[in-house]
Specification:
The complex is a heterodimer.
Chain A: E1 3-16, E2 19-32, E3 36-41, H1 47-54, E4 62-67, E5 70-71, H2 77-84, E6 87-90, H3 102-112, H4 117-130, H5 146-158, E7 164-168, H6 176-193, E8 196-201, H7 204-210, E9 213-218, E10 221-227, H8 240-255
Parallel strand pairs in A: 3-8, 3-9, 6-7, 7-8
Antiparallel strand pairs in A: 1-2, 1-4, 4-5, 9-10
Helix pairs in contact in A: 3-4, 3-5, 4-5, 5-6
Chain B: H1 3-7, H2 9-44, H3 53-68, H4 71-77, H5 79-86, H6 92-116, H7 120-128, H8 133-164, H9 175-184, H10 189-217
The complex binds adenosine-5'-diphosphate (ADP) and magnesium ion (MG).
Residues 47-48, 169 of chain A line the site of magnesium ion.
């Protein structure tokens, strides 16, 4: 197995008022090609910072970041921008350009990479097909549901055929039904396209359902990394009777 | 058509023309210089892409000083500069110099504010895609802020019309100056009221056009 992402003794701190906050403290981590790697931990544990260090969205105070055999921490700005094209990223709040259509949003990374108009059009359609939104190409993000927006974001992140996809709480703004759909898409991205996925989440169910390995973080440090057997994401039923049943069951348990 | 308007027809058309020249050139200056300055103000702020304290402070001070000048004093204060640029300090073209300086300062602040409204996450996604600073500006910032940028320009234009009314002081002419000289000073109250109506009409038109287009551009 070869390593695609490797962090060596990486640290990141922030100046907060008078004190210095150590968001990530001397972390080393290797992520293998083809893996779905989860990062879980309490809010403020440093998960997002760790993820953002992987594409050097945050410059580490010290340590080395290597992705796709390139040492990102020593690259020139220009080379770093090129390297980032093969590292896709998606976010909790999707971060689509609201004034661009779905098509135009997915086209942006291709324009940055210098695709011709024809090649761009073909690739956008391919990506939208992949996430099942080809018919929404000419809509604006505001006309889509949360799950559909995240699918567009995934299509956008995949447009340049990245080797790695970084996901920061990709399902945390979604309801459980929609979450299951997005996790399905991510799994397909991993299995069919061979993309290595790092997924940060505070939801145990999410991490358990698709990850091969999970890193647990606490106060900026790695507590442990464990291999797991992924288990199906359990979709709670979305009907009032089921809600009632759940509520009264809880009550019975606590009465007992 | 009221008799008084027919009587002064030529002068009225000329004054409207002068207002158009003064306001038109100000809008042009606002776009050509104010838009880049506003964008730089945004980019050089603390925590932004091109964080640069010295440049931010200089631009910020320029904008604040120009905007805090009583406009008539700014006109007088700029006379030497105006003479240097257009060769004379008197006339419609000379009047466009202080108006343009004010327009630049006014609009650059509105541009900065419009860009600050763009969600940070969008910039972040742009950086993660490997976009360069110019690409972020043109493919993300300006696209997302376009309706605010246009509304800001609309507001600015209406202010320029108002500022242009005092340009009689340096012989700039325009609708406002005509209303004061003929309507007020020659006691042609009826004429003055017609001129005010013309101004109101212009302002309404501009506001309506700006708001309508901005609404069309806004898909958020
Ligand atoms: N840009 C920043 N400036 C200052 N402090 C930050 C910044 N980003 C994160 N932090 C702090 O670093 C810590 C870790 O944040 P984060 O990585 O976002 O945690 P998590 O994603 O696990 O909730 C938090 O205490 C947070 O307040
Ligand atoms: Mg986080």
């Amino acid at each position: 197995m070869c390593t695609v992402i490797s962090l060596h003794n990486v640290s990141k701190s922030y100046q907060q008022h008078q004190s210095i906050l150590q968001a990530v403290h001397s972390v080393s981590l290797n992520i293998d090609k083809g893996e779905i790697h989860g990062v879980i931990g309490a809010s403020g544990a440093g998960k997002s910072t760790l993820l953002r260090l992987m594409n050097v969205l945050e410059t580490p105070d010290q340590g080395i970041v290597v992705v796709n055999n390139q040492t990102l921490t020593t690259l020139s700005n220009r080379k770093l921008r090129e390297a980032r094209r093969s590292i896709g990223m998606i976010f909790q709040h999707f971060n689509l350009v609201a004034n661009k259509t779905v098509f135009a949003n997915v086209a942006v990374p291709l324009e940055l990479a210098g695709y011709s108009k024809k090649a761009k059009g073909d690739r956008v359609k391919e990506c939208l097909e992949f996430v099942g939104l080809r018919d929404k190409a000419h809509q604006y993000p505001a006309q889509l549901s949360g799950g559909q927006k995240q699918r567009v974001a995934i299509a956008r992140a995949l447009a340049n055929r990245p080797a790695v996809l970084l996901c920061d709480e990709p399902t945390s703004a979604l309801d459980p039904q929609t979450t299951a759909g997005i996790l399905d898409v991510l799994q397909t991205v991993n299995k069919e396209l061979g993309v290595t996925i790092v997924i940060v989440s505070h939801e145990m169910d999410v991490v358990k359902s698709i990850c091969d390995k999970v890193t647990v973080m606490e106060s900026g440090e790695i507590l442990e990394t464990v291999s797991i057997e992924s288990q199906a994401y359990i979709i709670p039923k979305n009907d009032p009777k089921w809600f009632l049943q759940q509520l009264t069951e809880k009550e019975r348990n606590s009465n007992a | 058509m009221p008799e008084i308007i027919l009587k002064y027809q030529a002068e009225i058309w000329q004054s409207i023309g002068e207002t158009f020249v003064m306001v038109g050139i100000s809008i042009f200056a606002a776009l050509l210089v104010g838009l880049p300055i506003g964008t730089l103000l945004y980019l050089c702020r603390k925590g932004q892409m091109l964080e640069n304290r010295a440049l931010y402070s200089s631009l910020n001070i320029f904008v604040n000083i120009v905007r805090s000048f009583p406009f008539l004093l700014l006109v007088v204060f700029l006379i030497p500069f105006t003479r240097f640029i257009v060769g004379t300090a008197i006339g419609t073209m000379a009047a466009t110099v202080p108006l343009s300086i004010m327009a630049i300062a006014y609009y650059s602040r509105l541009v900065e504010q419009a860009l600050l409204e763009v969600p940070r996450g969008i910039i972040e996604s742009a950086v993660s895609m490997g976009a360069s600073v110019p690409e972020i500006i043109f493919k993300f910032l300006f696209v997302e802020a376009r309706s605010s940028l246009l509304l800001g320009l609309t507001t600015s234009t209406i202010s320029f019309i108002s500022y242009s009314t005092v340009m009689g002081i340096v012989g700039g002419g325009g609708v406002g100056d005509f209303a004061i000289r003929y309507g007020y000073q020659r006691f042609e109250t009826e004429l003055m009221i017609y001129m005010i109506i013309i101004m109101i009409f212009f302002v309404q038109m501009i506001q309506y056009t700006g708001t309508t287009i901005a609404k069309k551009l806004d898909k958020r």
